[in-house]
Amino acid sequence: MQDIIQLLSDNIANQIAAGEVIQRPASAVKELLENAVDAGASEIKLIVNDAGKALIQVIDNGKGMSETDARMAFERHATSKIKSIDDLFRIKTMGFRGEALASIAAVAQVELKTKRDEDEVGIYIEIENSLVKKQEPIAAPTGTSIAMKNLFFNVPARRNFLKSNPSELRHIVDEFIRVAMAFPEIFFSLNSNGQEVFHLEKGSLKQRIVQILGNNYNAKLVSVQERTDYLDILGFVGKPETAKKTRGDQYFFVNNRFIKSAYLNHAVMSAFAEMISKDSFPMYTLFIDLDPAQLDINVHPTKQEIKFEDEKIVYAFVHSAVKHALAQFSISPTLDFELDASIQNLDAVNKPISEINKRDASSSSLFQTFAQKNQAHFVEKKSELTHWKDFYNKSTTSGDIEIDKYSTKNAQAIPVFEKNVENEKPWDNSDLLQVHNAYVIVQNYKGYLLVNQQNAHERILYERFANAITGKSIATQQILFPSTIEFAPADVIIINELLPDLTILGYRLEPFGNNTFVLQGTPADMQHSSEINAIEKLLEQYKHFSSDMKFSKREKLLRSMSLQQSIKAGTSLTQKEMKQLVEVLFLCDIPNTTPTGKPTYMSFKKEEMDRMFGRLI
Ligand code: ADP
Ligand code: MG
After folding, report:
1. Is the Cα torsion angle 26, 31, 35, 37 positive or negative in sign?
2. Domain count, the chain
3. Which of 35, 115, 428, 514 is the most exposed place for a label (fewest CB within 10 A)?
4. With a 6 A CB cut-off, is 39 part of the ligand 1 pocket?
5. How far, in Å, is the centroid of ligand 1 from the Cα of 249?
6. Are strands 250-254 and 284-290 parallel, antiparallel or unpaired?
7. Same-domain pairing of 521 and 583
8. How far is the CA of 301 from the centre of ligand 2 (A)?
């Protein structure tokens, strides 16, 4: 028998190893940005073409490399960041494994330009398939530029695995934000296909957060700051009113490295409990700094999980630090910028309400849990509002009221619509009754209908929008004084994607450069007309649905718009409006549920009522 084991060629071994470090363009972006940070740059520019598939280039003004180092850098396990195993427990740099450049060189065509301050000339190196193609002196500014072209040009199987450009670009933007957020003292820019998507001047963390996440957070950030011997927590959380329906704006960094941790996320969320509704997510950008020896560095660097020596302590720290910050903020509210300086200096404004409150707020014992009654933001827990499913369950036990078509077994699936609405429909001409500004009671021959006004309107709008997409677009009402809206850079990508459909649906939104759009018109029959607010809420709602991958972009947009434009509970309706609502509802194809499957009305039979009151046997 012949021996069968062979050594893999360097080339294949490199490509296999590269696969672990560089999975997609965004992984290369992360590695190159981190190298630039490690090189001490104060300015880092990222340029991508074709979502990084054609080009990823990072230009920094860091310390550069010597000629020998420039050659060495592309060898596997070549690093300047650790020398001995002990260094691993002191590591402060972003990289240390010496794998990134070797991996990149294995799967792309690389062009490196670099020069140190002390050198007269720089060095230019071209590498392909891990082989040096060209090397020559070059005139260059101090710093490093690495361009990688045609990622996976030599590994077609991987190239085919890449997602669409918007999807890969999204990943790149995410990585870019994670690095840029952690280093506000560094200038960052991101240019995609010749367009500048981000331009982040150096500044404070607060400024960086606002630059990246948008102006809405201006004056809405609460500072979190606790320093102890064991660890430091620094950063910001959004005030409760900025909580959103999407999880997006949440960032944890451990020793400046972005991490994902459901456990620590829970620590923050529970600190917000009672201040925000259960289905909303507060913004946070928190930096935990601790002795690297307290971290398990063997967790793979491209993974975003992290292992702490003592996870429970970190949880308790994070939880208390956020609670503490929120408690302080609620007692001495952050002053609005508009406030006159002389007013700001008044004791009454400056000082917490009472000394006792002040003690409660500022005693920084981290493990102290805060008694709920000491928090101004403590909202008394409402007697659990009955969810409609509960309502359903209760109703069924108290008599067999005809509601089984709202099969709640699968709230997502639209219940099969019984075509016998005709039986429900013919209400007589008597007045309708609105209760709690949320429900409309409609009498009909069989008994009465209890209509949820928002759900009903959502259904009506959904069908109207869906019809507009397939048929005649919705008329636009020109705005007299067009207003500009500035979006967070990441949101511009979404808006651009939705623009054609938004136009059909009656919005006239025109790109104005620099993440700004001009709103020229809104749907002619839109109910509430705080136009800009409406667009922002729509986007918010859309992003919320976007976490739900199973729907098309268009379906998400339709659902977002109908939800966002629907008349909400709390809106008082006139007789005419109520009648119209109910009438149009029953003209819908599927009048009995919202697009997401919530019931729009319940039907109560007189017979059943009579039975309940012992009037019928
Ligand atoms: P690691 O970052 O883990 O050390 P890399 O493969 O990312 O490994 O980089 C290898 C080495 O190349 C680094 O240790 C550093 O010395 C050098 N290097 C990489 N990028 C840069 C840069 N932008 N500026 C200066 N030196 C760099
Ligand atoms: Mg590196």
Report:
1. positive
2. 4
3. 428
4. yes
5. 30
6. parallel
7. yes
8. 10
Residues 490 and 525 in one domain: yes
Cα of 31 vs centre of ligand 2, distance in Å, is 5
- Whole-number percent of the chain with pLDDT over 70: 81
In a domain, 395, yes or no: no
Question: Which of 13-27, 33-47, 328-342, 343-357 tops mean pLDDT?
Answer: 33-47
Tell me the C-alpha distance between 187 and 121, whole Å.
25
Q: Please indicate, yes or no, whether residues 235 and 221 belong to a single structural domain of this protein.
A: yes
Domain for residue 385, yes or no?
no
The whole-number pLDDT of residue 547 equals: 63
- Measured in Å, residue 73 CA sits from the centre of ligand 1 at 6
Going by alpha carbons, the residue nearest to atom 12 of ligand 1 is: 73
Using alpha carbons, list the distances in angstroms from residue 53 to 16, 17, 110, 189, 573.
19, 20, 13, 19, 54
437-444: average pLDDT: 92
Question: Which H or E element spans position 38?
Answer: helix 25-38
Burial 167-198, CB ≥16 within 10 A → b, else e: ebbbbbbebbbbbbbbbbebbbbbbbeeeebb
Question: Phi-psi region for residue 438, left (φ > 0), alpha (ψ -120 to 50) or beta?
Answer: alpha
Q: What does DSSP assign to residue 371?
A: P
Tell whether the model's pLDDT for residue 177 goes beyond 80: yes
The domain boundary, picked from 203, 229, 257, lies at: 203
State whether the beta carbon of 594 lies less than 6 angstroms from ligand 1.
no
Residues 119 and 148 placed together within one structural domain of the fold: yes
Q: 331: which residues sit within 8 A by CB, 6+ positions away?
A: 352, 353, 357, 358, 360, 361, 376
The answer to whether residues 55 and 143 belong to one domain is yes
Last residue of a domain, one of 150, 168, 203: 203
CATH number of the domain that 567 lies in?
A: 3.30.1370.100
Contact indicator for 403, 394 with CB cutoff of 8 Å: no
SS3 string, 311-366, reads HHHHHHHHHHHHHHHHHHHHHCCCCCCCCCHHHHCCHHHHCCCCHHHHHHHHCCCC
Q: Give distance in angstroms: CA of 8 to centre of ligand 1.
A: 26
**How many Å lie between the centroid of ligand 2 and the Cα of residue 155?**
22
What's the domain range around 217? 206-328
Are residues 86 and 133 located together in one domain of the fold? yes
393 within some domain: no
Is the Cβ–Cβ distance between 253 and 182 less than 8 Å?
A: yes
- Answer yes or no: do 190 and 210 share one domain: no
Q: Which residues surround ligand 2, an ion (CB under 5 A)?
A: 35, 95, 100
Answer whether 44 contacts ligand 1 (Cβ < 6 A): no
Ligand nearest to the CA of 104: 1
Q: Could you tell me the pTM of the whole model?
A: 0.63
Query: Average pLDDT for residues 217-222, to the nearest whole number?
Result: 89
Check if 82 has its Cβ closer than 6 Å to any atom of ligand 1: no
- Identify the CATH number of the domain in which residue 274 sits: 3.30.230.10
Cβ–ligand 1 distance for 101 under 6 Å, the answer: yes
Q: Which of 79, 110, 144 to mutate to test the pocket of ligand 1 (most atoms within 8 A of CB)?
A: 79
Q: Does 402 contact ligand 1 (Cβ within 6 A)?
A: no
Is the same domain home to 259 and 192?
Answer: no
CA distances from 607 to 302, 399, 418, 494, 604 (A): 66, 11, 20, 52, 9
Separation in Å, CA 390 to CA 126, 384, 394, 396, 450 = 67, 11, 6, 10, 16
The protein residue with its alpha carbon nearest to ligand 1, atom 23, reads 36
Task: Establish if 577 belongs to a structural domain.
Answer: yes
The CATH number linked to 41 is 3.30.565.10
